[in-house]
Amino acid sequence: MGNWWTSVRTSGERLHRSAGLLVRYPFEFWHYGDSIGFEGLLAASELLGEPQYEGFVHGALRAWAARREPFRELDNTTPGHAICLTYERTGDEAILEGARALASFLASRRRVEGAFVSFERVPLRRPYSGEPLSSEEEALLDAPGAGVFVDCLHFDPPFFAHLGRLTGDDRLLELAVEQALAHLRLLQDESGLVWHFWLERTRKRYGYGWARGQGWVLLGLLDLLQHVEHDEIRSAFLSLAEALASFQQPDGGWPSVAHDPASGHESSTAAFAAAGFAAGVERGLLPDAFRERARAAWEHVRVRVRDDGALAGVSAAVWASTRASHYPRVPTGFVVPWGQGALLLAANRLSEDVQREGRWRRSV
User: Could you say which DSSP state residue 203 is in?
Assistant: First the structure.
């Protein structure tokens, strides 16, 4: 345990560099992965005692709020939970007004099986593996139709719930629960793990066990449960956490496909899991045994943070494929929000243990 505590205490300067890489990242306002990036920067301000990272988020969100319309499909990836956190810290009414307008737009989308459509035309691609596709899959590339994606469990439900609490709007709280359950019905497997996406055209789901996808859901449900009490969602969260923990490797990390050790390592999953497991224990949603799981995951992450602050071994955007062979072959080595943001969030959440025990002063 001593090495673990020391590793958090002495990583400060490197984590400053990690946050700096995020500040310099070319965010598109908005795209998949931005939510964890902004949450990571807010966590960095808490962790390192540096207001500049929160200031960057506040400035970016204020600029977004001023020119937010017309909304578009990809605005479902807007970091709504981070917007709410920033409003809580700054009291900036312009950001709250933007959040309300965003929620109204998001609530107007078409639903399929009760879940908001993530894409009306799913961005399917040929598998990274190069494996030939069947004639049915070739046809899907040309006309995939609409789909529901697992990442959206990190976007919509926590945002609706957080904004509902801030504004006293019970309809948003109900919408948060409704959307979480609809997505889980489509995407969570009986094993507890989740699938990557579901296609309306085929009525099938694809990408079972994609490891980072488990992390998106873990953190999304955790944030949702901070604002709502719901036994079924809590059970789904526990089931996912237990399934994910059962596939943790001896080095504390996970393969690219959680249940397939032969699929090769990918670092961001460990950062997501470290953050989710630590907070889950802290909030009484997970048994205390998950604390050691979180510490092992953090150690896996810590030793992979380069001197420049980049988390090594993080995969590129996965996009979507109907072939399971796609997921182990996604290239790695990218400095992206879903690596850097998850790293900073994990470091902050685990550091709370250190602070409670009085073993760390923010003196980096």
Answer: T
Quote the Cα angle for 51-154-60, to 5°: 35
What one-character-per-residue DSSP string does 35-53 give?
A: HHHHHHHHHHHHHHT-HHH
The single residue listed with the structure tokens 């709410």 is 84
Is 0.90 topped by the overall pTM? yes
Tens digit of pLDDT at every position of the chain (364 positions)? 344 434 444 567 899 999 999 999 999 999 999 999 999 999 999 999 999 999 999 999 999 999 999 999 999 999 999 999 999 999 999 999 999 999 999 999 999 999 999 999 999 999 999 999 999 999 999 999 999 999 999 999 999 999 999 999 999 999 999 999 999 999 999 999 999 999 999 999 999 999 999 999 999 999 999 999 999 999 999 999 999 999 999 999 999 999 999 999 999 999 999 999 999 999 999 999 999 999 999 999 999 999 999 999 999 999 999 999 999 999 999 999 999 999 999 999 998 543 443 333 333 3
Could you tell me where the beta strands, DSSP code E, fall in the chain?
111-112, 115-116, 147-149, 197-199, 204-206
DSSP states along 277-326: HHHHHHTTSS-TTHHHHHHHHHHHHHTTB-TTSPBTT-B----B-S-GGG
Task: Give domain 111-354's CATH architecture.
Answer: Alpha/alpha barrel (1.50)
Q: Is 40 exposed, middle or buried (0-12, 13-18, 19+ CB in 10 A)?
A: buried
CA distance 143 to 92: 43
